[in-house]
Design a protein that fits this description.
four-stranded antiparallel beta sheet; alpha+beta; 98 residues
């Protein structure tokens, strides 16, 4: 049975109280992880923005949009890694279909 690939978009928010070096290290970590497990990886850094509501006493976050094509198993692993990474306030993975 052939493995099916789909297009995904991920938005994640990094705690903006982290240093610039820490923020860039987190972005690099997830970009590298995606490049190892997916194709057509694109990363767009939106930068610091005001949050719609306070998260963990934070009112600002560093937003990053990442899109890629992968098999269904990778987004689940990516979501797990977001959950255990210090500095990630929120993340959302959406399947964009074909």
């Amino acid at each position: 049975m052939a493995k099916v690939s789909a297009k995904y978009e991920v938005v994640y928010i990094i705690n903006s109280s982290k240093s610039e070096e820490d923020i860039q290290a987190i972005v690099a970590k997830f970009t590298h992880l995606a490049e190892q497990n997916a194709t057509a990886v694109e990363v767009e850094e939106w930068g610091k923005r005001k949050l719609a509501y306070e998260i963990d006493d934070e009112t600002e976050g560093y937003y990053v949009l990442m899109s890629f094509t992968s098999e269904a198993a990778f987004p689940a692993e990516l979501d797990r890694v977001f959950g255990i990474t210090d500095g990630i306030l929120r993340s959302m993975i959406v399947c964009r279909g074909e």
